[in-house]
Amino acid sequence: MLLNTYEPWKFAFSAENENIKENSYGIIGVPFDSTTSYHSGARLGPIVVREASFGFEKYNTIFNKDLTSTFYDFGDINVVPGNCKTTCDLVEDTVKELLDLNLKPIIIGGEHSASIGAIKALSEKHERLTVVHLDAHRDLAFEFIGEKYSHATVMRRAHEMGVNLVQIGIRSSSQDEEEFVKSTYNIQTFKNRDVHKHMDAIEYYLTNIDGPIYISIDMDVMNPAIAPSVGNPTPGGLFVSEIENILETLCRKNIVGFDVVETATNKLGEQTAVVAAKIIYDFLTLIE
Ligand SMILES: [Mn+2]
Q1: CA of 262 to the centre of ligand 1 (A)
Q2: Which of 5, 97, 115, 192 sits 20 to 30 Å CA-CA off 242?
């Protein structure tokens, strides 16, 4: 048990939180959606994703591999509804607790702002951190409706921390965001059509990333037919096999943190939660 968390449910295949093995992974949920601007409900993401995780077999047929990695589920953070900055700080504190235990964080959202605290903690621990960000949106606004801390400003805050960004699946952005990308040297973009047409080039690029990597997956990167219950559903989008290819490539690298955010449903068995659980399950299968 970490400070600031409680345990409503644990992800399938997670180990008991005792005799913690170093260099493994720790799951925390962030049941928060106070800056959501369209479809609300991401605060229930952690519980429905964990519930969906029990639908998978220990043997992962796609990768011909058993899920043998050790990981712990420390439950959900005691978020502060209505206060994004304080919640981001709590996520940062809790991720630092995980890092002190020599565990790498896996975060289940909750709105995308959950990533801000995690990336802050990791960017202070690791030099030359690269954030691989899968999303329909760039999330690079300096402010969103007057707020600096929001689901729509996540990657701008991360960029201010000095990280390199690789954005994959982008299909919606503002002109200001595009200008910002042009004005910087360390944001690489693979738009939605690149994923469908040039996956080899993306895999080659990811294989050659130097240094530690944080992976942030906004569920709205998926095609909305596959994952409709997200904060901002956006037509187009990735298919499950494309996520599998990207994860398989990235998991050969030095992954220091991982999040799957923006699952917004209160319905057990709803497909967005099932797909989010599968992405986490695949990640846990692929890492050693
Ligand atoms: Mn998004």
Answers
A1: 8
A2: 115
For residue 64, the CA-to-ligand 1 centroid distance in Å is: 31
- Say if residue 74's pLDDT is above 80: yes
Dist. CA 114 → ligand 1 center (Å): 13
Gap from CA of 250 to ligand 1 centroid (Å): 20
Question: pTM to 2 decimals?
Answer: 0.97
Among the listed ranges 108-112, 144-148, 178-182, 193-197, which one has the minimum average pLDDT value?
144-148
For the stretch 262-283, pLDDT in tens is 999 999 999 999 999 999 999 9
Residue showing tokens 């298919």:
239
Task: Specify the CATH number for 5-286; select among 3.40.50.1100, 1.20.810.10, 3.20.20.70, 3.40.800.10.
Answer: 3.40.800.10
Separation of CA 281 and ligand 1 centre (Å): 21
Separation of 39 CA from ligand 1 center, angstroms? Answer: 12
For residue 20, report the distance from its CA to the centre of ligand 1, in Å. Answer: 34
The per-residue pLDDT for 69 is 96
Q: How far apart are CA 104 and CA 258, in angstroms?
A: 8
Taking Cα atoms as reference points, which of 191, 177, 257, 182 lies closest to residue 221? Answer: 191
Ligand 1 centre distance from Cα of residue 225 (Å):
15
How far apart are the CA of 211 and the centre of ligand 1, in A? 25
Please state the domain extents for the chain. 5-286
Q: At 148, which amino acid appears?
A: K
State the pLDDT at residue 3: 82
Sheet holding 25-30, edge to edge: 5-6, 71-77, 25-30, 104-109, 255-261, 213-218, 130-134, 164-170, 187-191
- Cα-to-centroid distance, 23 and ligand 1 (Å): 30
pLDDT at res. 37: 87
